[in-house]
Specification:
Strand content: 5-15%
Helix content: 25-40%
Bound molecules: N-carbamoyl-L-aspartate
Number of helices: 11
Strand order of the largest sheet: 7-6-5-8-9
Length: 381
């Protein structure tokens, strides 16, 4: 089958996708969402085979973790969720990530013998999913014709979080009330700990895929020294996405010009010992206060990948807590709850497109083949 994106069926970083492939996935996700809302059958493209998904989360997660499993449950993927692999694995005995990943996937030198058909990996090391893809590719070179083993990056350190970028694009697409392309004439304001935000990294790479056909302006409101990496800024410039910076003091002024205000939290767990993350004064300036609601343009809305910092020993939360009930009640100006729930339909649509590659590879197996003791039914000609 024709690959749906570069390095298909792995889904590791946004650079693998073209604007067209992104649009296709998002449309598929929106079709899934509509079907789910109306309790209609999902418009799935893959066949009904219980492929096995192994979930390896070395870092904490609430939404990404559960929505991957909810998505898999929608079409009978069997799920093995390895409990706390960072603690309950030979990592604590000094084993390298490569060796652990080879064990968790049963790749190595046994041809078709695999202990999973799809692996979803979250890890604190940037590039961890690439490491896993390499382990698998090496095994596949030794056994050409063995089934693919797609890797999905569910967040790697300060690298990328590409499925969150899909969730964000689907949200922008579903919630922007413009008549043309949902990204055209878009001004999006990012604020927070952008240097460490894998979510923002992936979303910026995704926006860059549309810079040649849509007018996109990105505003960064950040303290000095906490900005997006220079190579990503060069990428934006190359792809005709305009960008500008403002200091925390200018936050209210920038909100007035934005169609979307994208908030992020300070990633305290990623700071090195002794490192100052954000001065308190700065953090207070970068709170979306309830008074700022009046500054929002008509139809503008606030997004957040969540979690919001709710630690009472280290306030403030980056969004005024008085606004959270409004988000829960479905106020169109506060999108973060809908954004989070969309994780199910978006990840289900992605898994469906990834299962297609497994279906195609299984069709090439000899007649009467069994996969994990289950007969594979080839399509009748
Ligand atoms: C983000 C993450 O894990 O990178 N959360 C998420 O997946 N929805 C954002 C964060 O932790 O701040």
């Amino acid at each position: 089958m024709k690959p749906l994106w570069d390095n298909y069926p792995h889904f590791i970083r946004m650079q693998q996708l073209s604007g067209e492939s992104l649009e296709k996935i998002i449309q598929h996700a929106i079709d899934f969402e509509k079907a789910l809302k109306k309790c209609k059958p999902l418009p799935r493209q893959s066949r009904n085979f219980p492929w096995r998904m192994r979930v390896l989360f070395y870092e904490p997660s609430t939404r990404t973790h559960t929505t991957f499993k909810d998505a898999a449950a929608l079409f009978q993927l069997s799920v093995d969720d390895v409990p706390d692999p960072g603690v309950f694995s030979s990592a604590v005995k000094g084993e390298k990530l490569e060796s652990a990943l080879a064990a968790y996937t049963c790749t190595g030198n046994m041809g078709h013998l695999r202990s999973a058909d799809i692996v979803v990996l979250r890890h604190k090391a940037s590039g961890a999913s690439q490491v896993l893809a390499k382990v698998i590719e090496t095994a596949q070179r030794n056994f050409p014709g063995s089934l693919p083993l797609p890797v999905i990056n569910a967040g790697d350190g300060t690298g990328q979080h590409p499925t969150q970028a899909l969730v964000d694009l689907a949200t922008i697409s579903a919630e922007r009330k413009n008549s043309g392309h949902s990204l055209d004439a878009l001004t999006i304001l990012f604020s927070g700990d952008l240097a460490r935000s894998r979510v923002v990294n992936s979303l910026l790479y995704a926006l860059g895929k549309f810079g040649h056909k849509c007018k996109i302006r990105v505003m960064f409101c950040i303290p000095n020294g906490f900005g997006t990496k220079p190579d990503l800024l060069e990428y934006l410039a190359r792809n005709r996405v305009q960008y500008e910076f403002g200091s925390p003091r200018e936050f209210p002024k920038m909100i007035k010009r934005a169609d979307i205000v994208y908030m992020t939290r300070v990633q305290r767990e990623r700071k090195d010992p002794g490192e100052v993350v954000f001065k308190k004064k700065c953090r207070r300036k970068l709170v979306f206060r309830k008074e700022y609601v009046a500054l929002l343009k008509q139809d503008a809305f606030v997004m957040h990948p969540l979690p919001i910092n709710e630690d009472p020993t280290d306030p403030p939360p980056e969004i005024d807590s008085e606004l959270w009930p409004l988000a829960q009640a479905g106020d169109p100006r506060f999108a973060w709850m809908r954004q989070s729930h969309r994780g199910i339909s978006v990840r289900a649509a992605l898994l469906d497109l990834i299962c297609l590659s497994l279906d195609a590879a299984a069709d090439a197996l000899p007649d009467g083949a069994e996969i994990w003791g289950r007969p594979w039914k080839k399509p009748s000609m």
